Amino acid sequence: MTASTTVEWQVANQQYLVAAMELLRAILRRHAARGGENGEDATELHAANASLTAARRVMSTPPALELIGAAFGLSNFEQMLLLLCAAMELDATFAPLCASAQGDPQRSFPTFGLALAALDHPHWSAVTPDGPLRRWHLVEVGSGATLTSSSLRADERIVHCLAGVASQEERLVPLLGQVVEPSSLAPSHQQLASRLVATWSQPDLGHDLPVAQLIGGDLESKRHVAAAACAQLGLSLRTMRAELLPTGPPELSSLIQLWNRETILSNHALLVDAHGAERTDTSRWDALTRLTEYAHGVLFVATRERWATSRRTLCIEVPKPSPAEQRATWIEAIGPSAASLNGHVDKLVSQFNLGTHAIRAACDDALALDLAGESADPGTRLWDACRMQARPRMDDLAQRIESAATWDDLVLPAAQLHVLRELTAHVRWRAKVYESWGFAAKGARGLGITALFAGASGTGKTLAAEVIAHELRLDLYRIDLSSVVSKYIGETEKNLRRIFDTAEDGGAVLLFDEADALFGKRSEVKDSHDRYANIEVSYLLQRMEAYRGLAILTTNLRSALDTAFLRRIRFVLQFPFPDAGQRREIWRRVFPSQTPLHDLDLEVLSRLSIAGGNIRNVALNAAFLAADSGDRVSMVHLFRAAQGEYAKLEKSMTDTEMDGWPRADLEEYGSVAGYVA
Fold this sequence. Notes:
This protein is α/β, with parallel strands linked by helices.
C-alpha cells in the first residue's frame, strides 16, 4: 500500500474496531441481563450489527481483526474472544462491563467462562495450549482457581496490530537490527539476489522455503544481497547475531515462536550473522541449528564456510564485487573528479579489496581528510581512507606498527637491499603485471607476494618490513604465530582466515613472527595431531599465495624450516649479523638530528659486537642517562648503556670491544673505570 492508502486504511480500520467493540459491548449487556433480554437490548444489538456491517462494507482491504484471524486460522469465536481481551486495553468501560456480565465486582476482567457464556458459537479448544490463541501467544492465561475463571489478556503486540498501529515485538527489539535495500548493487550480486528470488518464487514450494546459506568472508556484501532479494519479494530484512541466541531450550523455543509470529504479522525476513560464532561453542551452534529447522519464512544464515543443517538449504558463495565492479563503484562514488585522478582508481582497486559500502565510506573519509588538511592530494587521501577501512577490525587481531622508517634507516649489504627493493617493486606493480600484462589470466595460483626474512634478533627484519610498508604507504601488522596456533583442531585455520580476510580489505602488510613455530621441519606422521599440523601449514601457505597484499614471515633460524615450505615462498632473504663497517653506519644513523651529541667515536662504538636492534637500545638508554644528568650524549653515557645491554644479553665485553674508550671521562663514574684498558 502507498502512504496515502495506508492512512485511509488506518482510519477505516479504526472505525471498524470501534463498531466491533460496540457490538461486543451490546453482547455483554445482553448477557448481564441474565436471559431477561428486552426490546431495548435487541434494538441495541441490531444497531451495533448494522454499524459493523456498514464499517466493513467501505473497506477494500480487510480490517486488522479479520487479517489476524485469517493469518492465524482463528474461528469466529476465537476472533471475538481476542477482541474481548483487546477491548480491555483499548476502552476502560469494559472492566465494569465484564464485572457486571459475570455478576462479580471483583472479576472486572475477561475470562474464558464469560466468553463461553456470552459469545456465539463457543468451543473449548479455543484456549488449549495447541490452539492458535495460546500457541501464537495472542492471548495469555493468568492465574485462577480454574481455567474458566482465570483472567485472559491480549498480548501487547497484538493489541497494537488490531488498532492498526505499526509496532515491533518488544522482546525481539534488543536482538534485531534492520538492513535497508542498498541504493545500488554490483551486477554479480544482483544476479545472486535474483537467483534467490527465483528459488523462493517457485509455486510448488508453498511454505517449505529453503534456508539461504550465504557463504564468504564479506558480511556487508551478504547483507546487501539478502536485502535486495527481500525488496523484490516485498519483505523487510532483519538481522540477528548468532551470539545473541539463547541456548536454553525454553528460551530458544519462545524466541523462535515470537519470530514466527512476527513473520506473519509484519512480512519480515531474518538474516542470522554467524561470522562471530565460535565453532567450539557447540551450544550456540546447536541453537542456530534448531532455529534454522523451526523458523518460518525467508531465512538467511551468513557463515564463513559451509555448514550442515537438516533443513533444505540453498548454499550461495557471496564474494566481494569483482575488480571491474569495484572500479565502476569507485568512479561513481568519486564523481566527475574521477577522470582527473590519473590512474589512482586502478591502484586502489589493485591494492584494496573493498565492497560497495566500504568504497563509499572511503570516499566520505577522504572528504573528511581533505577538510582536515591531512593529505596533500585527492589520490593520497583516497589511499589513506582505504587503509582506515579495515583498521578497526584488524586492530583486534594483530598489533599495528606505526612506521616512519625509510631506506636511509636500513643498513644492510647491497645484495639484501637489492632484494628488498625488488620485493617492493613486486607489490607496487603487481596490477600492471597481473592484469594489464595478462599473468593473472594464466591462473590465480602463486600470485600472492610472500617473503621470508631470516636472521638473528636485532638484524633488521622488522625494520625492513617497516621500511617497505612506509614506502608503499600501507599499514603494517605484526602477528605472533605462537599465539595464533591452537591445540584445537581447526582453530588455527580459523584464526588465520580471520586475519587474512580482514587484512585483505585494507591491503595491509602482514608480518608473521616466529615462523618456525609453524614451519619447522616435518617429522613422521604418527597420529592425527601430526596430520592436522601439516594441514595447518598447507592452509597458511595456500592463503599466503592467494593474499592480495604482502605477507612476510620471520625466523631467527632458517635451518629450522622445512625446505619444502621455502620453495613455496617467493622471496627468501637472510639478514646477516652486521660487520664493523655496517655497525659504524648504524651508529652514525641511530641518533635523530635533534639529539645533542658530544665527541662520539664511531670507530670505538663499531667494535661493540651487537646487532642493530641492540645498538638502538644502547643509544636510547644513553639518551635517557644524558637527559637525567643534564648533559649531551657522550661516550660515558654510551658505555654505561652498553654495559646494561650486555648484561641483558648475558655476555661480557671482550678486550677488543673495551679498547679505545676515553679513560678520563669514564673515571668520573669510578665503578666503570676498571673496565677501560
